[in-house]
Design goal:
This protein is of the alpha/beta class. It has helices spanning about 30-35, 70-75, 90-95, 95-105, 115-120, 130-135, 140-145, 150, 165-180, 195-215, 250-255, 325-335, 360-365, 370-375, 385-390, 405-415, 430-445, 460-475; strands at about 20-25, 65, 185-190, 215-220, 235-240, 240-245, 245-250, 285-295, 300-310, 315-320, 345-350, 350, 365-370, 450-455, 480-485, 500. Strands 1, 2, 3, 4, 5, 6 and 7 form a 7-stranded mixed β-sheet that branches. A 5-stranded parallel β-sheet has the order 13-14-15-10-16, with helices on both faces. Strands 9-8-11-12 form a 4-stranded antiparallel β-sheet, with no helix packed on it. The longest helix is centred in the middle third of the chain and has 17 residues, at about 195-215.
């Protein structure tokens, strides 16, 4: 397939003691290169060889583990659907974090994708009798003494069901599970996205210790093109499905500073948003939450503790808090995706939740995107149809848009610089290109309320700036209301004037 083929032959060597950052814009071919290195994509010509040192098995199996972007979003239970964690039946069938981790340790086998042989056989983390016996062994002292439990702050998660993990908690789980295997080479895709400040600092410190011990070499895929951790020794640039020669970190940063790291790329135009005609918008209260408390399943923990929150028309809010503090759950209550929404005192656009309105009436004036929604969106349709599905808040396209509506879809694809991808199948796009499609989908109906949960996940530096500018321009329009979640303060548009921390 053209989407998995480089334009030129690839020369790549990871030498002893090197740690390589693979840098490049979204859709440039970074994931394709990694798939070549791990043997996922077969070579048309040339040779792929591994040498992990004397006394070490020569194959990638067991020596290389890879944490992908999809893993970062939390893809551990398949099939997965949006808001699965709020379905009581799926929640009850989901195993505890400790059960899955102990079984992963007991199996002792990891493939190039990071999945154990047992996990590959056991769909949905089902356990055989033997695995259940191993996972439930009385002597947990070795497992519980593992220092990585503290490094990744895993102890509070051990008795939590897998399906209930937030996206940030899922990232911690995935990193822990792969690193307890002590791989020879760790390939990690944007390791810091979705993590709060404390966890990013902890993870950064851990990578430094890992490298200082000298037992693991790291290949890190990085979308933030202006930020290369100082423990990376070299950089490989990937752009337009072409892999450049390996250079030192210092050479790359010099090229970036001088504006020659990557060719100029024509992308979207945030100023197009100003050409949209104004339309009458709702006034007064947009969201009203009164005395909100929510008990978490199977725990004694209560979220929010009597939260009162009023969001008025035209306000721009930042919603902040540590991983697992309940940010995404709060948004699911507002959007009526959480079954407890109708038992809570929540009003939207001046109407009390549960007074006869349909979920489609609720969503009609809301544009929404989140890592969890991205994780669940597996429709393999042309990109423009993905954008068009936002017109009716569907996952997939079940009602053919009118020609003038398709023009609106193309307009928003131009805004985000992805109009050239309109006929590409969604699942063939890079994760960053998929995120841009879902952002266009969120804006396509010109919503009154726009809710953006970590909207810049996985975007390169250029596109992060573009999307931030689009959000800012959109919110300059009369009575547009914004709620945005991010762990990076510099991602917030300048017109954010209010914040709430959970």
């Amino acid at each position: 397939m053209p989407q998995t083929r480089m334009k030129q032959p690839v020369d790549f060597t990871l030498c002893q003691g090197e740690h390589i950052a693979i840098m490049g814009p979204n859709g440039g071919g970074k994931t394709c290169l990694v798939d070549l290195l791990t043997g996922k994509n077969l070579l048309l010509q040339g040779q792929l060889t591994y040498d992990f040192g004397p006394g070490v098995k020569p194959s990638a199996y067991g020596n290389i583990v890879q944490l992908t972007f999809e893993d970062a979003l939390g893809s551990v239970e398949k099939p997965y659907y949006f808001q699965q964690r709020f379905n009581s039946q799926d929640r009850d069938e989901s195993p505890l974090v400790s059960t899955v981790l102990k079984r992963a340790l007991a199996s002792g086998k990891v493939s190039a994708t990071g999945l154990s042989a047992d996990e590959a056989r056991a769909a949905g983390h089902g356990l055989t009798i033997e695995e259940a016996r191993d996972a439930g062994a009385e002597d947990d002292s070795e497992f519980l003494s593992n220092p990585l439990l503290d490094t990744f702050m895993m102890r509070p998660l051990l008795n939590k069901r897998m399906v209930l993990l937030s996206s940030g908690e899922m990232r911690r789980y995935q990193l822990f599970k792969y690193l307890i295997k002590k791989p020879r080479v760790l390939i990690v895709d944007n390791p810091f996205i979705g993590l709060d400040t404390e966890m990013r600092d902890q993870l950064d410190l851990f990578f430094r210790h890992l490298i200082a011990e000298g037992n693991v070499q790291i290949i890190m895929i990085i979308s933030m093109l202006d930020n290369v951790p100082d423990y990376m020794t070299h950089v490989v640039k990937v752009h337009d499905m072409t892999v450049s020669a390996k250079i030192t970190r210092e050479q790359y940063l010099s090229e970036w500073k001088n504006g020659v790291a990557f060719p100029d790329t024509v992308m979207g135009d945030a100023s197009l948003v100003s050409t949209l005609a104004e339309k009458p918008e709702a006034q007064g209260s947009i969201i009203s939450i009164r005395n909100l408390s929510l008990k978490l399943p199977e725990t004694n923990r209560v979220l929010y503790g009597g939260l009162n929150w009023e969001v008025c028309s035209g306000e721009k809010w930042a919603l902040q808090g540590r991983n697992g503090s309940g940010k995404s759950t709060l948004l699911s209550l507002i959007c009526a995706d959480h079954p407890a929404a109708y038992a809570c005192d929540i009003s939207l656009f001046g109407r009390r939740r549960g007074t006869g309105e349909s979920i489609w009436e609720i969503k009609r004036n809301i544009g929404f995107v989140s890592p969890e929604f991205h994780r669940a969106y597996k429709e393999n349709r042309p990109a423009i149809e993905i954008v068009a599905s936002g017109l009716h808040d569907s996952v997939g396209l079940y009602k053919r848009p009118r020609p003038e509506q398709m023009e609106v879809c193309l307009f928003w694809m131009k805004v985000f610089g992805i109009d050239q991808l309109k006929d590409r199948m969604f699942l063939t796009l890079s994760s960053g290109e998929q995120r841009l499609c879902l952002l266009a989908r969120a804006f396509v109906k010109d919503p009154t309320l726009i809710i953006l949960d970590e909207p810049l996940h996985g975007l390169d530096t250029y596109r992060r700036n573009l999307v931030r500018n689009v959000i800012s321009e959109f919110c300059k329009r009369q009575a547009k209301t914004l709620i945005m979640v991010t762990h990076y303060i510099d991602e917030l548009p300048g017109n954010i004037t209010k914040s709430i921390t959970l």
